[in-house]
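User: Fold this, then the next.

Assistant: Folding the first:
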Amino acid sequence: MKHAPEVVNAAREEGEPGVDYDPLDTVVSTQIRLARHIATHHASDVPAIDPSCERCTSDESRQMPAVLVLEHRARHVFAPPSIAGLL
């Protein structure tokens, strides 16, 4: 198990695009990776703070790291509000 991340990353680099090589992948980990990708590579596409989202408005007062705030807001692109508010 200690080497699982290295094995999965090597498979991703050598394999076909769009194939999930992580046997331990879950919906949550996929959402986290997608949100991180959007936040770091497509920041201009991240939506503005949603005033109706409790998490969006609380992130401002908690002084979260900027990338985590962007990740949460990126979830609004692909997840319903009830799910986006969880992470």
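Now the next one, as you asked:
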Amino acid sequence: MEFQELKAFVAHHDNFEIRVIGHAGSRFYQVELEDVEGQRHMLTRAAKPILFRSLDDVYLELKRAGIHRAYLVQQVPHDEMIGREAHYQDPLTSRMPLVF
């Protein structure tokens, strides 16, 4: 999902979740939107996922889109190695609420 598409989506919908995804051992973050139908859309630029170097960069970009809440999700290599899918809906065990 391109930035302009994200802005338009946010302007017309109110039932979605924004996730800021960090990978253990990496200092980069990605942003994902999950809509009410459960479809996930990665924030992209020129059809390539955008990588942010800091949470401040993420906050600024999301604020420009009109978003002020998100969840920080930390993916752990152990889960990836054993093939376990991340469960983002588990209350506060795999995600932390962000308000900016």
